[in-house]
Amino acid sequence: MRMMAGMLTATIVLAACGGEPTPAAPSAEVAPPAAEAPAMGTLTAEQQAQGWKTLFNGTDLSGWKGYKKDAPGAGWVVENGELTLTAGGAGDIMTVEQFGPFELSLEWKISPKGNSGIIYLVNEDPTAENTYNTGPEMQVLDNDGHPDGKIPSHRAGALYDFTVPPDGAVKPVGEWNEAVVRFTGSEIEHWLNGKLVSESSYGDDAWKTKVAATKFKQWPLFGTFARGHIALQDHGDRVWYRNIRIRPL
Description:
The chain contains three helices and 13 strands, in the order ααβββββββββββαββ. With 249 residues, the chain is mostly beta strands.
């Protein structure tokens, strides 16, 4: 009875003072779940609308072959949705299809002291023994660990042996880099992690003068084609590629 009387007294006093019980704090609003990222090797609806096409499905090597061979070398495999070179001697791997002009987008990751490259406009001419005899290359490199890192025009992102990329664009070895190659038919651009790292005209007199100043001058067909295969280089080192896609320009 004393407890009931006390509660009644407290209620009367509270009412007399004009007070009201303090309402409980509202519960935190629950954020909607984040949109699920597209699976490796697939495209969003927006990317499809923009004309992108997947070159690597993240599951197998469909659409890929070896240079002047019907199938990729045994060292190229798919692991965890990534296209990786597990052992040297496999030879370069390249698309069955040819492209040009185009915008190529992909991600790459290199092993410590590793070297590889993205070679494009590749043609299987009988006189060309290697992919790089015909196609320009975007360098893939551990700048700090590989000897080529000491040569400015051989550093990651460079139009190999032609241009010097700015410092600070490439991520530390072992991390993924987002790369874009844009070939308009008359110009080449290389982008690395959102930064323009290389640009050049293509096919004009200025281009021919540049070629004559590089080691590629020994191959008459180098940099002369308007379309070709996309190749990934076997330089003997472990390298990973994923989210490889292309769209026409």
